[in-house]
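Entry 14. Ran structure prediction on the chain below.
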Amino acid sequence: MRAKVLKGSALFHNTCPELTPSVRKAVTRVVGGWLLDLPDRYSYHHKLIPLLLTSLSDEQTDIREMADELWHDIGLKYERENEDDLKDKLDFVSPQPGHYPPNLERPNLGCRVLVNRHLSKILPGLIRDLGDWVAETRVKCALLLYWLLVNAEDYTTQHIEPLLTGLYKACYDEDERVVKEVQKSAELVGYFVKAETWKKLVLTGLRQSTSYNNVMTIAAIVRGSPKDVLVEHQSELVAAVLNPDVSHTVENKMHEQIINFCRSLMSVVGKDVNAVSQEIFNLQVGVLAMTQNPSVVQSANDTMEELAKIQGFSGKADLFEMHTKALIDSFGDGVNMWTNFSPERQIFDTLLVEAGPVVGKHLDDIIPIIVANLQPEKDPELRLKFFSLLSRLVLAAPTTLDSDNHFGDFAVTVARDMILPNCVWKAGRTASAIRATAISCMWALLQSGALSREKMEPIKEPVLTQLISLIEDDTNTTRLVACRVLTRVFDLLGTALCQDHLHNLYPELLKRLDDSSNEIRLTMTKTLLAYFDCFVGGYDASLYRCHLEAIYRGLLLHLDDPETSIQEAVLKVMKKASELSPHMLIREVESVKHKHRSTRYCEELIKYAQDFAAASN
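Output, structure tokens:
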């Protein structure tokens, strides 16, 4: 039995699934007996210690208790046998560290010295076996590593570099049991190794390999670190994780570990996290921007709620109040170089959506960024993203852009510098999509009420020019929305539009009554109703006779439309138009009435015009 154990694996009895509890118990008893009484046991300590320490994690309680008792006795006997060498340590026993793993009894001096003297022989093979192809072997190695570090205590520092390398690799393991146990070992690094030592190494490792396993290891070490020491180093640690090479990733596992790191830090430093609150906030917003996983989104939101609670705030809304401006400022001049795939662009998008009412307090910083990224020379996909963001914000303006009642001051900038330049016709599907999105955004802006008559006055010429162009667009959606926007513009400007300008518009408006889409034709009738409301009283019909005749004749064509709904809508428009010159309208109707399929609408229109003329006199 002795030869078989010594020649086999250091984890012989635990990595063999077929060994029953009774066999494992027998092996534990035999190995413990050898470590106590074998005459030449000193030559085999490095082989026997792993066998016994592995039993400290056995599934059976009685085996664990037996191994614990044997290990304790082995340590005491080792102290007696090496009393001369350990005299100073025995006479001046060092007290248990103030920061020690909870619910764990400290091994005696003999146990600690035994492990320290043989760790250099055990650890390399153990770390190698953490990558073994057999899952059970990896699990047992992870369990053994924990107990070795418990006994090694601050001597772990002597082996910190290879240990961290092993921890990083083990965190990649597909078996969750291995990862869980390895993290427990990483926590012990925080307990036993000085922060100055492990911090330098983990930050170097993170720069060399920006992988989630490094962040996972750092998070575990942080959980084991003492608060007073960690507070001194938290800024450097958070800054390292906030590095774009680490945090700007689409990998869900990295997102999970960033959240894990932040929670670990908050759990240790408590209220002192205030010093890095901005950085943790930035990390959570970054996760929200990059992830597509609902559970990760929920975890990030929960982390922000927890961060707010630690600092005495009522909720995460207070965090946005405090940190939004600083996050926006951190983008710097880089906003001019954003592309559709820039992580900063995604973070900006998420920040504005999540910030809610806080957005309205920072328009001086937000609007210039949106303007810069909606210039026609920018990437089309980037502009589509920004228009989507802008539309969402404008539609919810009372609780976002206008929460501080100042969005009206920027409404002209939005229309003139963001929307209109993107309404100019260009060939291609992407350009067509941008025009559709831009005009939809204009519609949302008008619906929000931010663009008043006074603010529209200075930009009415370019607005009407682009709208007349858009109602002839190739895309049905663009034409439809442009008609609606035009209706709203006429309602808004009213009599502020001069007669000559109005006369220049009607030829293009009448063309839309011939549109291939009945929906657009019906919408244009509403636009024409708003159009005729723009004419001031005392209209000089004789001066503008030619214009009126062209308008009436164009409308009369559609009063005989095959679609009843179009006929009825045009009838309403002509009744409104008749108010400009009822007698002229009557003459025009009489001249074409005989050509119509039915004279009902013509007679009704004549009756309306006669009644209006009589009432006017």
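The chain is about 70% helix and 0% strand. Will compare against last week's run tomorrow.
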